[in-house]
Design brief:
Length: 157
């Protein structure tokens, strides 16, 4: 259902991992509301004579893959993700799925930031833009502060 609607937010959550393994649960009211949303979508498609949009499904899938890539990069120790590299990765994946669409970097950046609800931030030097998880920035700052304190103690001795 999520692919057919296409619900990028749900597809992204589903791509994060095995829902059974993490014992994900849903409320019956929420599931009923989602099924109604799906049925309304199917009805609107049949009334207008259009089919489900394959490009939108491919975009949702590609975004989910991009989010998964970002999270695995963060887990492997990559602190900063360059926006231009993420954009190139996203566009090349769309092309491999035969979706020829222009994607603006700023819109992709805003979509990523919106997905993480403030857990990621943008840093720029005017030329390059990088995205960094807040938790990684905290770790980096703590390490820098610790190293500065050690150097200060050494200079005192």
């Amino acid at each position: 259902m999520a692919v057919q609607i296409p619900d990028a937010q749900l597809i992204t959550k589903l791509a994060a991992g095995d829902m059974v393994a993490i014992e994900a649960k849903y409320h019956s009211r929420c599931m009923l509301a989602y099924k109604r949303k799906y049925m309304a979508y199917v009805r609107s498609c049949s009334e207008t004579g259009t089919s489900t949009n394959d490009d939108s499904a491919a975009e949702a899938r590609t975004f989910a893959e991009l989010i998964s890539f970002m999270e695995s990069s963060a887990e492997s120790g990559t602190l900063f993700l360059k926006l231009s590299s993420l954009h190139d990765l996203y566009v090349s994946r769309l092309r491999s799925l035969h979706v020829d669409k222009s994607v603006y970097k700023t819109r992709l950046k805003n979509r990523i930031i919106e997905h993480y609800h403030g857990e990621i931030q943008e840093q720029t030097d005017g030329k390059n833009t990088v995205l960094a998880f807040n938790q990684d920035i905290e770790t980096l700052l703590k390490d820098a502060l610790k190293n500065a304190t050690v150097k200060k103690k050494r200079s005192i001795l």
